[in-house]
Amino acid sequence: MDRQTLKRKILDAVDNLAATIIDTGRYLYDHPELGYKEEKGTAHVAGLLGNAGYDVRSGIARTGLMARDTSRNSGPTLAVMGELDAIICKEHPDAVPGGAVHACGHNIQTAVMSGIALALKQAGALEHLGGNLVFMAVPAEEFVEMEFRSRLKARQEIQYFGGKQEMVARGLMDGIDMAMMMHALNLGPGKRIFSASSGNGFIGKTVVFKGKEAHAGSAPHEGVNALNAAMLAMNNIHAQREVFRDGDRVRVHPIITRGGDVVNVVPARVEMECYVRAAAMESLIRANAMVDRALKAGAAAVGAGIEIRDMPGYLPLRNDPGMESLFLENADVLCRAQGTADAIVKGGDFSGSLDFGDISHLIPGLHPFFGGVSGSLHSKEFRLTDPDTAYLLPVKTLALTLVDLLWDDGKEARRIITDFTPAMDKTAYLGWLEKTERKTVLDMEPCCPK
């Protein structure tokens, strides 16, 4: 069978499987689960891929799964990923009690991943490809519920808060030579595909300002107001913004999660969560140091103590240019055939953060965005609007790209792997995670002499 005939068979298979693919996304949407809790989602996808003949291993990183074709060969191994977890957005009309909802489209990702696996099986494509395929339903991409994840870590059920971090640490990425996945994104009118060459990384922070209680009405002078320390710290961060370089795409967004306990008591403990984002590692480290300085200054100004805990977030996204080029060729062919040749946005950056960025530092990675949704990510307005664009177009485009990579004994995949220079190896990556996770504690300053 020649390559173009195989591609046509895959496209026909996707059309035949359209209802199954969309129903998979709908099931996950109707059963949103937060990170490291995705039991229903894991079981549903495991059944789907297991029934298709894949060798499925569930619970790979507390939750999540890996599915392989039982036949193995000596070619490169390519992973197709989708994420299982929902986000918290209590204002979304489809949120379940507690606020979980797929307002980031991870249900679409996992349905797309499953659709690629099913279409390749139905088209009989696997025997014609010179490589191995692994399909991964990944847990815990959203960086939420830090207290819950901290308890899991204390019980040694996980090592890291992010699902792909955990997969790397457990050796699940060992032997994987390249990876791909997609993300849904509101691209605006008439646009269906966005190929962003890069995206921001981030460091997560929790901050505790420690003051001293006192009666807020009769004796505020006897207290140390931790809320004032936090507010000054936030203003200090704002004062840094004019020196963040535009090209670094720095984003800092703190929230106060505990602002005090009783109105009539000077707040003695105030808690904050914060992300520091940037487009490159150097910029991220620099911005994080500036934020730490601003936080410490806020505490020092009122004599409060402070505890800053840094958590390894995600590394900046690095789309591999060779994989991206093949992807855009297939995207162009499909969009032209559908009369939407101008629907592709090429180049540009994504200022959000994705834990696929970590994977892209280790092996060649491809992570495009597809439309078919409206509203902003993580907002109550996020909605599916066009199932063909959100589900079927990415299944087709990524499956055809996969064929090009693994055709002719994986010739293109081998070339890309050879040309790829990893930003770090596994040892250095795990070292970065360990180094980034740290706690800084400064005690309350003594009062001024009377």
Describe this structure in words.
The structure is a single chain. This protein is an alpha/beta fold and 450 residues long. Helix content is 40%, strand content 22%. It contains twelve helices and 21 strands. Strands 10, 11, 12, 13, 14, 16 and 21 form a seven-stranded mixed beta sheet that branches. A six-stranded mixed beta sheet has the order 1-2-6-3-7-17, with helices on both faces. Helix 2 runs antiparallel to helix 4 and helix 7 packs antiparallel against helix 8. It is elongated, with a radius of gyration of 24 Å. The termini are far apart.
Cα shape: elongated
Structural class: alpha/beta
* Extended strand count: 21
Mean pLDDT: 93
Terminus-to-terminus distance: 90 Å
Number of helices: 12
- Portion of residues in beta strands equals 15-25%
User: In oligomeric terms, what are we looking at?
Assistant: single chain
Percentage of residues assigned to helices: 25-40%
Low-confidence stretches: none
Largest sheet: 7 strands, mixed
What is the alpha-carbon Rg in Å? 24 Å
